[in-house]
Amino acid sequence: MLKYQPGTTHQTCEYCGQENAIVDKQEAIQEYDFHNALETLAKTQSTPVSKQAHCDACGANFKFAANLNAGQCPFCGTDIVVSTQQNKLISPKSLLPFVINQSEANDKFHLWLQRLWFAPNKIKKYARKNNKLIGIYIPYWTYDSDTETTYTGARGDTYYVNQRVSYVQNGRQVSTVKRVPKIRWTHVRGRVSRFFDDVLIGASRSLPRQIIDHLHPWDLQNLVPYEEKYISGFQSEVYQVELDEGFDHARQVMDGIIHQDIAYDIGGDHQRIHKMNTRYNHITYKHCLLPIWSAAFLYRNKTYRFVVNGRTGQVQGERPYSYWKIAIAVITGLIVIGGGITYLQQSGALEHIEYGNYYAY
Q1: Contact present, 257 and 278 (Cβ < 8 Å)
Q2: Is residue 194 in some structural domain?
Q3: What is the mean pLDDT of residues 218-238?
């Protein structure tokens, strides 16, 4: 009954306290060729997989949920890890062990809850009553790629012209000259290049992408070779987002950064990108497991999910809103803005602001 203890390099028996050290494998974390992997996957016929697991402690045979390959025996509670090769052709080769324990993760969650704006007052009571943290390793892909992008677009440079305007001030017609901005556009074309390292894409469908993709930062430089002893006492998911689908998501991330590179390369005050064509070269990938604490709380018959980064304690999740608090805040803001405008009108400051930047003619 050995369980991995977060933040350590050993397993502990929950009954006698015996500690067994985890000796890390002396292996380098490798990158694998993306296109070779796709060819291998295409040639390999998919076969029905038995999710059967066997418990050596009590002899029971049972099945894990379709997305899990590690958890507890439902009959005696023994922690069991099933080899991912029984479920997927690509198995994880590295992981980040837990650093944040369950108690610390729970504290992080309640601190996050207290800082939520416009949250219902009763939410804290519901959260404490309903949430139960589960430690789970979530599958991720990382992608590396050399990119070269050609583009066409336009550069905009701002210049100013003087324009005569008239307005009424203190009952008199006044004429002034106002500086008006204009943009001069010039057609451009060019090329940018960038190397992307470890673009991280969640390979789980159990949680919304807007949650698992915003749990950064992850200290991927501290990945260790895959070792089942780190998983003992926790659940572990197999990937549900395939390798090629994960790269489609990674390419969207890369394209957003390349777009910024092009805008910088164009220069000027404004930029327009008409067309961009990117070549992705020397694509490699890793398949790794990252630790999270996951739970949900029930509020007014609706379930809200949240997760805590098992390395940093950062929290991401879904939350309810108090529409009464939002309405009161909006009404208060309108009252403050209306009062401010009335004061400016009565003091004459608004008229000064409106015409203060004109030049007398």
Answers
A1: no
A2: yes
A3: 92
Tell me if 206 is assigned to some domain.
Answer: yes
The SS3 assignment for 85 reads helix
What angle separates helix 243-266 from helix 34-43, to the nearest 10 degrees? 150
Domain span at residue 328 reads 322-356
| Strand ranges for 73-231 from DSSP E | 79-81, 94-95, 134-169, 172-202, 224-225
Do 314 and 338 fall within a single domain? no
Asked whether residue 281 falls in the same domain as residue 227, the answer is yes
Q: Percent of the chain at pLDDT above 90?
A: 43
- Quickly tell me which residue has 């015996």 as its tokens: 18
Distances (CA, A) of 118 to 177, 307, 319, 321, 327: 47, 20, 10, 6, 10
Does any domain span residue 160? no
Q: What is the largest CA-CA distance in the chain?
A: 98
Residue 295 — left, alpha, or beta (φ > 0 → left; ψ -120 to 50 → alpha)?
beta
Domain-embedded: residue 64 = yes
What is the distance between the alpha carbons of residues 136 and 235, in angstroms, rounded to a whole number?
A: 4
Which pLDDT value is given to residue 356?
46
Looking at the structure, do residues 77 and 212 belong to the same domain, yes or no? Answer: yes
pLDDT at 120 over 80: no
94: three-class secondary structure by DSSP: strand
| Most confident region among 81-90, 227-236, 296-305 by mean pLDDT | 227-236
Q: How confident is the model at residue 327 (pLDDT cuts 50, 70, 90)?
A: low
The 3-state DSSP class for residue 317 equals strand
- The verdict on 222 and 330 lying in the same domain is no
pLDDT digits (tens, 9 = 90+) for 267-292: 999 999 999 999 999 999 999 999 99
Query: 304 and 212 in one domain?
Result: yes
Q: How many domains does the chain have?
A: 2
How distant is the alpha carbon of residue 256 from its chain centre?
15
Residue 79's pLDDT is what? 59
For residue 248, what pLDDT is reported?
Answer: 97
User: Does residue 344 sit in the same domain as residue 275?
Assistant: no
pTM above 0.70, yes or no: yes
